[in-house]
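2024-03-11 09:14:02 INFO worker-7 job=invfold-0412 stage=load source=structure_tokens
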């Protein structure tokens, strides 16, 4: 049996993007459950679903204590930044800045941000929140690239592309087991041609599912070669 790399994914955002956060979480969980033999799986975390309510004068600090170590941070915003904390303009911004600090200490931690660009009725707009959102967007634009989307379909396409790109550049080896002879575990370094397959997925603009299918098929060819 081949070992499987776990990618913990922290999904962050204020309350107006709860549906989007849950859509991304469901997408990652569905993919992982549908591909048990893939060389990797995703374990997404959303505070709304995955934290235990605690009495605290600092609600964000209570959430912070329950956020697990993660490999990928994905932030999403739309019309608001959220409620302020004692340390930052909002909980979502606090989580983003903590992710940046983690990335600076460990460059393997990826930090990604997405903004929803869909019009809303004027009577649902909070001018103060919009102003703060635009300030944050300017700040983050000076630090890193971000992407925009309009619909859930657009969002999941971006997630597929981001994740497939991250996995393709992070996964450099696979563990092979000779089950028939119960031999010791072998570590196989992937060939340049195999890594190229993953890199070409982005160039060909194919989705995460297609990229993963190519990756798994190539890995199986490597496995068969070593088990012959």
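2024-03-11 09:14:09 INFO worker-7 stage=emit residues=228
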């Amino acid at each position: 049996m081949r070992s499987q790399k776990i990618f913990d994914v922290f999904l962050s955002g204020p309350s107006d993007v709860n549906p989007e956060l849950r859509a991304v979480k469901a997408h990652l969980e569905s993919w992982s459950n549908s591909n048990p033999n893939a060389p990797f799986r995703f374990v997404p975390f959303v505070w709304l679903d995955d934290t235990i309510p605690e009495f605290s004068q600092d609600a964000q600090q209570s959430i912070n204590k329950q956020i697990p170590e993660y490999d990928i941070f994905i932030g999403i915003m739309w019309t608001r930044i959220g409620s302020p904390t004692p340390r930052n303009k909002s909980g979502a911004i606090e989580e983003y800045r903590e992710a940046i600090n983690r990335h600076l200490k460990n460059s393997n931690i990826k930090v990604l941000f997405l903004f929803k660009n869909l019009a809303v009725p004027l009577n649902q707009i909070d001018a103060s929140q919009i102003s703060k959102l635009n300030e944050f967007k300017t700040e983050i634009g000076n630090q890193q690239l971000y992407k925009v989307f309009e619909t859930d379909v657009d969002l999941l396409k971006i997630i597929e592309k981001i994740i497939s790109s991250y996995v393709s550049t992070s996964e450099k080896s696979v563990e092979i087991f000779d089950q028939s002879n119960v031999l010791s575990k072998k570590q196989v370094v992937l060939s340049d041609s195999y890594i190229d397959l993953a890199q070409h997925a982005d160039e060909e603009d194919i989705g995460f599912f297609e990229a993963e299918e190519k990756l798994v098929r190539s890995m199986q060819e490597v496995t068969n070669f070593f088990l012959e």
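2024-03-11 09:14:09 INFO worker-7 stage=report msg="The chain has two domains: 5-168, 169-227."
2024-03-11 09:14:10 INFO worker-7 job finished
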